[in-house]
Amino acid sequence: MDANKVLDCKGLACPMPIVKTKKEMDTLSSGEILEVHTTDKGAKNDFTAWAESGGHQIVKDEEDNGVFKFWLKKG
């Protein structure tokens, strides 16, 4: 899936992946996609709740060798 930007949050613990994602999302236009990579095991729950509360959408997520990848569409 093509993303407008990729954000590397590997090695960061909660809440830093969400903090950095919010900052990066603020630079995107509505409808653009941000791809986030994180190793935080709680990321699935964190990103799901954060996207829902912020009006964003997780269009895809996957795990690859302990790296969780999220494609977030800005609302």
From TrEMBL:
Segments forming domain UPF0033: 7-31
Molecular-function GO term, any one: transferase activity
Stored SUPFAM superfamilies: SirA-like
UniProt keyword terms in alphabetical order: Transferase
Keyword Transferase: yes
CDD domains: SirA_YedF_YeeD (cd00291)
The keyword Transferase is annotated on this UniProt entry: yes
Family: Belongs to the sulfur carrier protein TusA family.
Protein name: Sulfurtransferase TusA family protein
